[in-house]
Amino acid sequence: MRETVKPKVLKPGDCIGLVAPSRFVNDFRGDLEKGIKVLENFGYKIAAGKHLYDRYYSSSAKAQDRADDINSFIKDPNIKAIYSVLGGDSCNQILDSIDYNALKENPKVLLGFSDITHLLISVNAKCNLVSLYAPGLKTLCHLTKESLASLNGILINGDIGYPKKFDVYKNGKAGGCLIGGNLFVINNLLATKYKPNLEGSLLFWEDVDDGLASVEFQLNQLKLSGALEGIGGMVIGEVVHEGEKTRDLKEIILELTGDYDFPIIKTNIFGHKTLDFYPIPIGVKAQIDTSGSESLKILESVFIRE
User: SS3 sequence, 41-71?
Assistant: First the structure.
C-alpha cells in the first residue's frame, strides 16, 4: 500500500500560483481579479503563471506551455499552492507532461474542479497526493461566506466539516478514501494509466450536462466499466441538467446501483453553479454514516500541520 503524500498547510503570507490548465481565461478577467482579491484578503500572496492569460484556440495556451506553468510552480519553493483558475475541456492534454516525481518530492496544495479533475486524479494515481476539489478562482467572488470560510479553513488548518445538507438515497455506513470529481472526467480516465484507484473508496461526483439522459448514460458507463464493484460508498454533488427532465435523478441512481449495497448520499455543497461550494479532499479517509449527525465526516487531517 502506497504512503499518502500530503502537502503542508498554508500560512498567511504564503504564495499561491495561478495556472490555467484548460480553457482560456480572458473572458473572465473581471471575476478572476475579484477572486485574486479574495485570496489576498485571506492573507496570501499571488503569482500568475507565465501563460495564464495566453490563448491557443479554446485553450489557455499550448499543452506544453500549460504544463510548464504547473511544473515551474511545483519546483519553486516559494509557491505553496497551485490554483487552477478555470475548467474547460483540454486538461487531459497536459497529463503526460506533468513532473510527477518533482511533485512527490515537493508536494503542493493543488486546487481546482470540473475538467481539472483530470489533473487532481492523475496526481493521486501517480503520487498518491492529497488535493482539493474546490471552486474555481473565477467563482470565489460569488460564493457564500460560509463556503469561503471552509476553503480558507482547510488551507490553514487542514480540517473541514460539512453542513447537514445531505439527502439519503441509500442507508448505510462505510469508510474509505475520498476519490472523485466530475463524472464525465472520471469515466474518461478509467481506460488510461491515470485511472483512479476506486477499490474501497468513497466515490464522490458531480456533473453538468444537457439533460438527465446524459447523466444516466455516464452512470451506466461507470457501471459497465466495473468501477462500482469495489467502492464503499457514493457522495453525489450538484447535478446540473439544462435539458429535458426525463425522470427523477434519485430514481436513476437507485436503478443503476440496485445490485450494490453501499450507502449513497446526495448534497448540493459542491459542483457546477452552486454558490455554497465546500472543498472535497481527494485521497483522505472519510466516513459516510446515514444514521449519524454527520452524513459525511473527514477522519484525518487533510494537510500536514506544522
Answer: HHCCEEEECCCCCCCECCECCCHHHHHHHHH
| Centroid of chain to Cα 9 | 18
Q: What is the pLDDT of residues 149-189, one digit of tens each?
A: 999 999 999 999 999 889 999 999 999 999 999 999 999 99
The model's pLDDT over 116-135, given as tens digits with 9 standing for 90+, comes to 999 999 999 999 999 999 99
Per-residue pLDDT tens over the stretch 255-298? 999 999 999 999 999 999 899 999 999 999 999 999 988 899 99
**Taking the model in full, what pTM does it have?**
0.96
8 Å CB contact between 207 and 181: no
- Which regions of the chain does DSSP assign to beta strands (E)? 15-19, 45-48, 79-84, 109-112, 131-133, 166-170, 173-182, 202-209, 233-241, 264-267, 280-282, 285-289, 296-298
Question: Per the structure block, which three cell numbers stand in for 42?
Answer: 485571506
Residue 248 DSSP one-character state? -
CB 147 within 8 A of CB 278: yes
**Which residues have CB under 8 Å from 288's CB, separation 6+?**
172, 173, 174, 175, 202, 232, 233, 235, 263, 265, 295, 296
Domains and CATH numbers, the chain: 15-157 (3.40.50.10740), 166-298 (3.50.30.60)
Beta bridge partners of 131: 282
Q: How far is CA 67 from CA 95, 184, 300, in A?
A: 8, 22, 31
Measured between alpha carbons, how far is 280 from 298 in angstroms, rounded to an integer?
9
Cell digits of residue 67: 504544463
